[in-house]
Specification:
By secondary structure, the chain is of the alpha/beta class. It has helices spanning 7-22, 26-33, 81-97, 118-132, 151-165, 189-204, 221-233, 255-265, 289-293, 332-340, 348-351, 354-368, 374-399, 403-421, 425-428, and strands spanning 37-46, 52-63, 69-76, 104-110, 141-145, 213-217, 236-242, 245-248, 274-275, 278-279, 285-287, 299-302, 321-324, 344-346. It has 15 helices and 14 strands. Strand 3, helix 3 (81-97) and strand 4 (104-110) form a beta-alpha-beta unit. Helix 13 packs across helix 14 (403-421). The structure holds nicotinamide-adenine-dinucleotide. Nicotinamide-adenine-dinucleotide binds next to helix 7 and strand 7.
């Protein structure tokens, strides 16, 4: 079995340590051992040339004890049931770690979206909602964007849901365009939240942002906003990569013009230092995606996909801290080696929770009809995620465990309270 297909199993192996430390009821192990529901569909899509293609798609609802399911929809050629299930398991924990009233779910379509025209992409997005209409809902399971899906896709999906339901249901999906009931601050929320978490770590270490060099793997929605905000806060972003390659500048890169350039050309290159048309391409070194992972930096940010650091390439890592913005970017084998080498890993379930926190705020705004300014949204995001990060760091220190174990303990405690509230074996045995 590959490292990838054992991710859910590996996540549950960590859970054994968590259950033992918390001494939770066996009922909880049983409930969390497998997802509540796995829905699968084939999505028929009429292509521009008249042919028909059917794309495999999933919606997995892992657990809804603490509230309706919540989780993004991913469009990627490698999407499979195991991946979507693992991601839905992490969503369950993540929502509990930052204490928002949602369970965990996830969706995915096995497709290369870059090979589709805009119209084909729209048909595919609408087809997803037609397939899963009966199992999602504002009180049931609320999708959101993930890899290769964005607010445009969420807008099509919200519109399709409204067409079928014959009424507007904005709370059915989050990450929508502002005009369709989206929240201020949602697009940058994951990157912003990750920066709050890194800041909380930095303050504990008594460091200044200017003293910290950062390399960012993955320059998509999450990685870009993180890099932009970190640069504004004073961190030195020395390297950035996307799926096609990377760039390095010892003196520090400017994320915003690189982003603008990438969106124009769809690739990263040195020709990015355009400030009012004054281009300075000097000193920008092109590097490979693997090379970025082995740079001698203070912080390595993983904001691409799963399994970026594996048992194979972990030996190359020289960073002091790894910030997991992607879900599951470090395989369990690599994680164990990083722990041994005292490389701090700030785990995904905490570091990337900013997105789901603002999704929750969007859902609240949709349900109350009271819409807030970006300032208020950002403040509420900061309060929640800094609080969760502080608790996680303090607990790790107090109990002498890794940040990952600490975050899992934090999430599991809340999940256990909710599950025990329904009655467990201990209750029925009169213990
Ligand atoms: P995205 O599709 O916008 O960006 C992904 C980026 O990773 C792209 O720039 C792509 O080129 C790059 N990439 C892919 N393979 C790479 C490789 N081998 N080396 C370097 N770069 C590579 O996706 P996103 O929304 O930014 O999500 C990124 C990660 O963050 C995912 O794991 C996602 O699950 C996680 N995440 C995202 C959000 C969110 O709100 N966007 C929230 C929580 C978690």
């Amino acid at each position: 079995m590959s490292e990838k297909t054992t991710q859910l199993h590996a996540a549950q192996k960590i859970m054994d340590e968590i259950y033992a430390r918390l001494n939770v009821s066996d009922d909880i192990r049983c409930r969390l051992h497998q997802p509540r529901r796995i829905h699968q569909a084939g999505l028929p899509v009429r292509m521009d040339n008249g042919s028909l293609k059917v794309f495999p798609a999933w919606r997995v609802q892992y657990d809804d004890t603490r509230g309706p399911g919540k989780g993004g929809i991913r469009f990627h050629p490698d999407v499979c049931e195991d991946e979507v299930t693992t991601l839905s398991f992490w969503m369950t924990l993540k929502c509990a770690v930052v204490d928002i009233p949602f369970g965990g779910a996830k969706g995915g379509v096995q497709v290369d979206p870059k090979a589709l025209s805009r119209l084909e992409l729209e048909r595919l997005s609408r087809s997803y909602i037609r397939a899963f209409f009966d199992v999602i809902g504002a009180d049931r399971d609320i999708p959101a964007p993930d890899v290769n899906t964005n607010e445009k896709v969420m807008g099509w999906m919200a519109d399709e849901y409204a067409e079928i339901a014959r009424r507007q249901v904005p709370a059915i999906i989050t990450g929508k365009p502002i005009g369709l009931g989206g929240s201020q601050g949602r697009t940058a929320a994951t990157g912003r939240g990750a920066l709050h978490v890194l800041d909380a770590w930095r303050v504990r270490e008594d460091l200044k942002p200017e003293e910290i060099t950062v390399a960012v793997q993955g320059f998509g929605n999450a990685g870009y906003h993180f890099a932009r905000l970190a640069k504004e806060a004073g961190y030195k972003i020395v390297a950035i990569s996307d799926s096609q390659g990377g760039i390095y500048l010892k003196e520090g890169l400017e994320p915003s013009p690189i982003w603008d350039h990438k969106n124009k050309t769809r690739k990263l290159s040195g020709m990015v230092y355009c400030d009012d048309s004054v281009c300075s391409v000097d000193n920008v070194e092109s590097i490979g995606t693997e090379e970025l992972l082995g740079l001698e930096v203070d912080v390595l940010v993983l904001a691409a996909l799963e399994n970026a650091i594996t048992g194979e390439n972990v030996k190359n890592v020289q960073a002091k801290v790894i910030l997991e913005i992607a879900n599951g970017p470090i395989t369990p084998a690599a994680d164990a080696q990083l722990l041994e080498r005292d490389i701090v890993v700030i785990p995904d379930v905490l570091a990337n929770a900013g997105g789901v926190i603002v999704s929750y705020l969007e859902w609240v705004q949709n349900r109350t009809g009271d819409y807030w300014s970006e300032e208020i949204v950002n403040e509420r995001l900061a309060t929640r995620i800094v609080n969760a990060a502080t608790q996680c760091f303090q607990r790790a220190h107090r109990e002498d465990v890794s940040l990952r174990v600490s975050a899992y303990l934090q999430g599991m405690e809340l999940l256990a309270v909710a599950m025990e509230g329904r009655g467990t074996q201990r209750y029925f045995e009169g213990e």
